[in-house]
Amino acid sequence: MKRPIFTSLRYFVPWSLAVLILNAGLSWAGFTPPKNLSRPGNREGAATRGICRVQTGTNEPDLTTLVPASNIGLTVANRPTFYWYLPANNYQALEFALFQTLADGTQVQIYKQQFPMVNRRRLDSITLAGDVPPLQEGVDYRWTVSLICNPNDSDPSQIRFVEGWVQRVTLPESLNKQLRQASPLQRYGLLASNGLWYDALDTLVKLRQEQPTDPKVNALWTELMTAEEVGLNRLSNLAIAQRSQRNLR
To answer: Edge to edge, what strands does the sheet with 159-168 contain?
Structure first.
């Protein structure tokens, strides 16, 4: 489903200003999503019947896809990384699926795989590998994460399900040049302020993995999660494991 996409990247922070703000250790405009871009969806899990449960509470979110409040984020990557929060649970398997939206609005599944639940981290992720079709520019893709109580039982009431959307856009050459010259912290600022959700999120996660005690990096995470355009406040204090990224195999 082709849509105008270049307008979503209009709000650039001037390079000199971005460097000045980041070097000064101050806050800036933060994540700036494109205007009038949203998709229907459910990014947080809901209660299911049966013996499988997740451990939730005041400080324990449900299964949650890390997408903006609009349910859709932009990326310039042809095989981006998808993140979700995985609470303590007694489900047996996790399933990731990716669907491409066709020109007539229908969706076709282009990837699905189940993984055992053993040793999965709270901030879980998948990076699309080379055998998965690359994302096409200007096309909507819906991705889902499902917790499967019993892989041998197809009863939908036993499945906990969340979803998000992604659209790939062209990386303007001017921004590409700035990114090549930027430090990781500056890179995050440029990606976030230009509305590139998946790229900014992945950059910030890696920064937190590399600098887990850096107050500036941790403050940026809190700022991102609590931004009005994001609204993932319950993840604002989430500890991130040193290595959380996986590739599909």
So the answer is: 72-75, 159-168, 140-148, 93-101, 107-116
Give the residue with greater pLDDT, 27 vs 92. Answer: 92
The amino acid at residue 55 is: Q
Strand partners, 142: 99, 165
CA–CA separation, 56 and 58 (whole Å) = 7
How far is it, in rounded angstroms, from Cα 221 to Cα 82? 16
Confidence of residue 242 (pLDDT cuts 50, 70, 90): low
In the numeric block, which tokens belong to residue 173?
Answer: 């050459």
What angle do the packed helices 184-193 and 173-181 form, to 10 degrees? Answer: 150
Please report, as a single letter, which amino acid is at residue 244. S
Instruction: Round to whole Å and give the CA distance between 102 and 139.
Output: 8
pLDDT over 90 (residue 222): yes
Residue ranges with strand state E in the chain: 64-65, 72-75, 81-85, 93-101, 107-116, 123-127, 140-148, 159-168
Per-residue confidence (pLDDT) for residue 206, from 0 to 100: 97
CA distance 87 to 121: 9
Other CB atoms within a 10 A radius of the CB of residue 236 amount to 15
pTM, two decimals, is 0.85
What is the share, in percent, of the chain residues with pLDDT greater than 90? 70
> Where does the chain have alpha helices with state H?
15-24, 173-181, 184-193, 197-210, 215-226
The C-alpha R_g of the chain, in whole angstroms, comes to: 18
- Backbone φ and ψ for 144, nearest 5 degrees, come out as -130, 150
